[in-house]
Amino acid sequence: MDSLLEGVARSFQDYESRPALFLGDQAFTCGELSRFASAIAHLIATESPTPGRVAILSECSLTAYGGILGALMAGAAYVPIHPGFPAARAAQILLRSQATVLLVGPDAVTEAKALLELVDAPRIVITPEISEARRKIAAPGHSYLDATDLAAQPTTGLTAPTVAPSDIAYLLFTSGSTGEPKAVPVSHGNACAYLQVALSRYDLTPEDRASQTFRLAFDLSVHDLFVTWSRGASLHPLPPQARLLPGRFIRERELTHWFSVPTTAMTMARFGQLSVGAFPSLRASLFCGEALPLKTARQWAIAAPHSTVDNLYGPTEATIACTAFRLGQDRAAPPPGGLTPIGRPFPDQCVLVVDPDGDPCFQGTPGELLLSGPQVTAGYLNDARRTEESFLTDGPHRWYRTGDRVVIDHTGCLHFLGRLDDQIQVAGHRVELSEVDFALRQACGHELAVSVARPRDGITEILAFVVTDDGDSLDLPALLNRCRDLLPDYMVPRRVIAVDAMPRNTSGKIDRSALLDLLNTAEARP
Length: 526
What we know:
- By secondary structure, the chain is α/β, with parallel strands linked by helices.
- It has 16 helices and 26 strands.
- The strands form 8 sheets. The chain has a 5-stranded parallel beta sheet, with helices on both faces.
């Protein structure tokens, strides 16, 4: 497999009449989605013969899914932008990606208008499902094409273009410590190395029905789309009302494959959705994006008695996932901290645990996890400094420093112990608290403001502490609203707490643990 699109194009041709995508109650066959995507590809190629990158501002729409396939068929890399992102952040992503085309879905017309008033690129804006796009968006300086233009294009069906392994398949933006997201270009070679493992490990058939719980700007969504469609199976994106408690959706759709962050399973357990035998149709259940409590994994296994339960691990820089642990089948020592092990590396992937000096750790000694292999990306886009900090070359190996603290037990199984820095996971999204701090300080106008992560009822929440002379002198709700203009919703602090001064540690740095202790003590008072 040379192209991310190769397996999908072949599968869509073989299973043209089978359902590929369900949006609400509306089903689209492989043939219908293929023809829609190929029309987008022809329109992109006509308007931008060397498209490079195509940004997609949409979620859970025909434009979003067809646009991804169409961009790849046109030989471009796709750049997903969630419509819920603040306009300033979306503009930053659009400009840094250097996208030549922007696809806009019917769910993002208002957001597109606000975005295009901030930037003068890209010049070409396509709304495949909308007529009269000029009237509806009407931001000057751009060339608009819409559903009428799309209808004039040939619908030849999907074909995979000739690409080099190093060509970029998609570009994702992850949380960065300076207030600027890090751009991770994932190549066709990186993605295909993952797909080869996943397709073999999960062995979907055209009769299978797979969930899609992840935003398209989250790299785990790549598994959902391309593993499912490469086998002619159908994809079932969760509607917004089912995302928090999706038990009923799983049963009604009779899903066979499930993939989500552990927070979803923990929330379902808390609300009684993981009863014995609740999901008899599932035969594969995957979790990734944050630590999976072993108790939750076992509860899920009881609720889905015919399903395997896999805990996957992998940062965006190593393409979706690169280690796995199968509950009840893989060997491991008792896990520390009650967390499901992250398992062993995929074939052709290498792991190394090192101490602070970079020397390999003995078995049983905690250290930082380094990753190497065909799934490890080339670095960060146009960011040599951060690439040099995070990627190391040692002989034939090129290593990515994950910043994750792990230990290898006597069976050779990896266990996740936490972060070496202030990076956390919130509902599966990777968040650096320093980026939240950056936005928080902009919002309140001074530097004495920090964010802190606190696990509560199995869910990580972000809290903000701000120094004020008088607790009533700062409009805390207004401060949170300003944060919402700067950050995605999952990064906005749940609460802002006013304090007289910041506690410091022996190094003179703000002591985040002491702030949490103060809050916990205050909340414990009668």
